[in-house]
Design brief:
The complex is a heterodimer of chains A (about 350) and B (about 170). Chain A is an alpha+beta fold and about 350 residues long. Chain A is built from seven helices and 15 strands. In chain A, β10 and β11 form a beta hairpin. The chains are: A alpha+beta (about 350), B mainly alpha (about 170).
Amino acid sequence: MGKQNECKKIVDYSLLFCDSETRESFTKHLAECRQCGRDYDVIAKIVFPSNDNNRHSPSDEVELRIIKSFDKLSQKLKSQDTKSKVIIKKFFRPFLISAAAVFILFTISFLYDSYKESEFNKNVTISYKNSRGNVTVNNKTADNTGKIYESNVIKTGDDSIVELFFNDIFKIKITCNTTFKIEKAEFDWKNNIFNFSFNLIDGVVLSKIDRFSRHQLSFRTTNSNFIVADTEFLLSAHKDKTTLLLSDGSLNIKPKQNEQEISAIKDKKYIITDRIIAQLMDNEDRRMIDFVQRSSDMAAVEKNESRNINNISKGKSEMVAHNVPCDKALSRIYESEKEKEQ
Amino acid sequence: MFEKDKIIELYRNYKKELFIYIYRFTNSHENSEDILHDCFINLIKYSHNHEINESSIRAFLYKTAHNLSINFLKRNTKFEFSSIEERNNSNILQDDTTINDIFSKEMNTKIYQVLDSFDNLSKSIFVMKKELNLSLDEIADYTGYSDRTVRRKLQKTINFVLTELKKSDFI
């Protein structure tokens, strides 16, 4: 064991594995110990380089071979690079196509949403029902029922009544000899509400706005604007005179000639010219409202009655008694007003 | 990828030591040249696909030489053991020699005979230390083993060689 340790020390010493202190002390020991000195000589021969190393050297041919190989290899590697680029392109092609498809779909979706917000809003449709007489929409004869849109202009004849309705938000009865325009009919996507704006150019309309409606509705005539909600009113416009009969709810009147805004109160009548005159509604006003309210109903009843009458072959006079033309009914109201003014 | 001039420069710098190292494995001049050539071809290919620092080139070459030499030994199941005459009488030996030189050569031959019975790693470590005088750290880096393993294997190899030489009455 002791000999092995000594041998190990000599090996470490010859391989320079020991620290400087150990080396110094062992050097002294080697000088003193013959056996260890001999062993060290042998180990040195083992560890030291072979004395024929200088004679080992590759021939010059090796260098030439390497150069030739380099030339071949560089060409080969360059062509491989080109192929690998093509392969990479082919490999990534499906991913690129998928990414492009996703991008296109996203773009289309985004554009559609933008379009919906801008253009689609205007395609809010309002339904109408022609109770009696002839009606034109944009100067074209309209069917008995149908749809109208923003910027459409409705004109009723002498004895015509048309009812506009949109879900439960509003019902507007357009009476005879009335020109009525849908100025705005759109959906506000951001606030999730409908925006309607109507222009009573000339004539009489009866409007009923839903109590729980949170949507934006407004009317205007030649000289006034009306912001309406949760209300029922009859509005008539003729030349420079606007008449409002408020039968239920409340609304704001904003005359165009001045900036004064007035809150209209139920059961009052407002005559708007260059000024606003407020009066209590009288029986004739209520009669007019009632007439318009019942007018489409009356038309239906009259149709049925006229059929029955025809079947029974009653006299013409009886038919006339039931069949009151709209313009005549309303003309009485206008006449009564004239009489009043006089 | 390295330029041609660079490859030639590297070859001229490292050919001697690499050849000695490889030769101690193969004991064949021709095979050693082939392996040396392959080392540099591997370097060219590697440099094409990877960035390689100047300081890493030597390590790369030794690792490649180490692996190629071991693969050579594995492929040749019978050691192409060159005879003593070849070791002594090949073109390596050119000069007139003294008795000491003859003795040294014989002992060297015996050392490598003994070494042939060792595992390739031990042999590789021994050759790097003996012939190329590489440091412990360098050997560890080139072989991919720890300093401790290298040191242990080297000590064991030398001790064994010493024992065998004593048995053979070389000492």
